[in-house]
């Protein structure tokens, strides 16, 4: 493993670098054109210290590579990025009091986000909180990407979008998930099956999800993730046990019960407080940076005593069966960032980034790239040290177009993956 120093704010594969909206609950497919060049009421101790962007600390991200004995030469890169929907940025202005207004304007953020994506030049890009899909698709088409989109149901206007380099991958099948149809709120997810053009035996399942934000609804979060994994496994088996990468904003921290479910494949929900399953409540910036401690109110103490009092409906939502208190999956997922070791300045005890999202009420990690057997991560774009984020004051900023940091990883197929794909896919 080595860390290559970046000569600019991004250390990636550089390529130089558009508002109609599909109806809610519908999918939208976009074909690419040939690639061309284009260019709280609590006092906030983290208030921006810089009156001008010229004084803000630089944002540098370094590519960390990791040699793996099982890595083949068939490799691809995946990026996952919650880009902060334009509508959400202005509906929740209280979260961005430390952000200069110019950095919140969509026209500027769009350029910054597309510059980031062009710099990484990832083979597959999964975006969340997309409410200007056609604008982004038009720009990304010029970089060689095809894309598909799934808007959330209900009165929200954002959704998930998946893009892929059409000269590297061919889309074989896609599935859009509307969680509302399963009693799991208005969030959506996408599943896509790809094959590599240069070797059609190399197939891959990509999942893209934006899990419900609301911290107290842990049963819904767990239900959404459980359902996505089950559908991904079905598609994997259909296409010859194709390996899986699950991308997205999971709205759960590395210390949470939901993270434990993803990483260990099982969870007994009765051991946990339903309202604390995601771990988000311990991530106020002042708490994370040691400025203040969380104070338990009498009501929260009572809440803790009642944590085992799950209703049958809450159990059903979480596990899929009101008679079962356990939820299990068999994908054997690992996190790319937890696998590829990084600096203590950017990583926590779990190996995950210390922060992938930062605004005035949250500083922590909720975004992940999960992968199954058949793949190994051979590199990741490291995140940003906490002290740099603290000096910035909040995201978005001059060189980051969202309140999240994108995650980028290179994956390699492992020996045996190809044979498995050949055998089973030929019988379908």
Which features characterize this protein?
6-stranded mixed sheet, alpha+beta, 9-stranded mixed sheet, about 425 residues, globular, disordered C terminus
Structural class: alpha+beta
SSE order, as H and E?
EEEEHHEHEEEEEHEHEHHHEEHEEEEHEH
What strand order characterises the main sheet? Answer: 1-3-18-19-4-5-7-6-2
Spans where pLDDT lies below 50 across 5 or more residues: 1-21, 30-54, 419-428
Integer-rounded radius of gyration: 21 Å
The largest sheet, given as strand count, sense and whether it forms a barrel, is: 9 strands, mixed
- Broad shape: globular
- Averaged pLDDT: 86
What is the assembly state of the chains in this entry? Answer: single chain
Q: Terminal Cα separation, in Å? A: 40 Å
**How much beta, percentage-wise?**
15-25%
The tally of beta strands, per DSSP, is: 19
Helical percent range? Answer: 10-25%
What is the number of helices? 11
3D architecture notes:
The protein is of the alpha+beta class and 428 residues long. It has eleven helices and 19 strands. Strand 6 (145-151) and strand 7 form a beta hairpin. It is globular and about 55 Å long.
């Amino acid at each position: 493993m080595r860390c290559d120093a970046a000569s600019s704010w991004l250390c990636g594969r550089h390529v130089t670098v558009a508002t109609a909206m599909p109806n809610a609950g519908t999918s939208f497919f976009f074909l690419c054109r040939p690639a061309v060049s284009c260019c709280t009421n609590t006092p906030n101790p983290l208030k921006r210290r810089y009156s001008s962007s010229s004084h803000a600390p630089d944002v540098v991200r370094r590519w960390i590579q990791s040699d793996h004995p099982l890595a083949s030469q068939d490799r691809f890169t995946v990026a996952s990025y919650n880009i902060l929907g334009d509508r959400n940025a202005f509906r929740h202005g209280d979260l961005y009091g430390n952000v200069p207004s110019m950095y919140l304007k969509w026209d500027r953020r769009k350029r910054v986000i597309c510059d980031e994506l062009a710099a990484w030049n990832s083979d597959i890009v999964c975006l969340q909180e997309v409410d200007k899909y056609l604008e982004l698709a038009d720009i990304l088409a010029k970089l060689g990407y095809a894309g598909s989109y799934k808007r959330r149901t209900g009165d929200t206007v954002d959704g998930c979008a998946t893009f892929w380099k059409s000269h590297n991958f061919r889309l074989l099948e896609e599935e859009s998930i509307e969680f509302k149809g399963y009693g799991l709120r208005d969030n959506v997810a996408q599943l896509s099956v790809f094959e590599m053009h240069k070797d059609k035996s190399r197939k891959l399942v990509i999942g893209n999800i934006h899990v419900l934000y609301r911290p107290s609804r842990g049963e819904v979060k767990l239900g959404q993730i459980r359902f996505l994994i089950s559908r991904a496994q079905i598609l994997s088996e259909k296409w010859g046990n194709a390996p899986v990468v699950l991308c997205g904003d999971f709205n759960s921290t590395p210390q949470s019960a939901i993270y434990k479910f993803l990483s260990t494949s099982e969870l007994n929900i009765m051991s946990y407080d339903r309202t604390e399953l995601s771990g988000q409540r311990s991530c106020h910036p002042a708490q994370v940076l040691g400025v203040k401690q969380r104070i338990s109110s009498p009501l929260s103490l009572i809440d803790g005593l009642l944590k085992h009092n799950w209703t049958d409906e809450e159990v059903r939502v979480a596990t899929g069966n009101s008679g079962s208190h356990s939820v299990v999956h068999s994908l054997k997922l690992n996190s790319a960032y937890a696998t590829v070791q990084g600096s203590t300045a950017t990583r926590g005890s779990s190996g995950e980034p210390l922060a992938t999202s930062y605004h005035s009420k949250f500083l922590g990690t909720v975004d992940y790239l999960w992968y199954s057997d058949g793949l190994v991560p051979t590199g990741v774009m490291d995140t940003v040290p906490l002290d740099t984020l603290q000096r910035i004051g909040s995201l978005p900023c001059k060189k980051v177009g969202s309140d999240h940091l994108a995650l980028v990883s290179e994956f390699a197929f492992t020996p045996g993956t190809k044979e498995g794909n050949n055998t089973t896919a030929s019988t379908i």
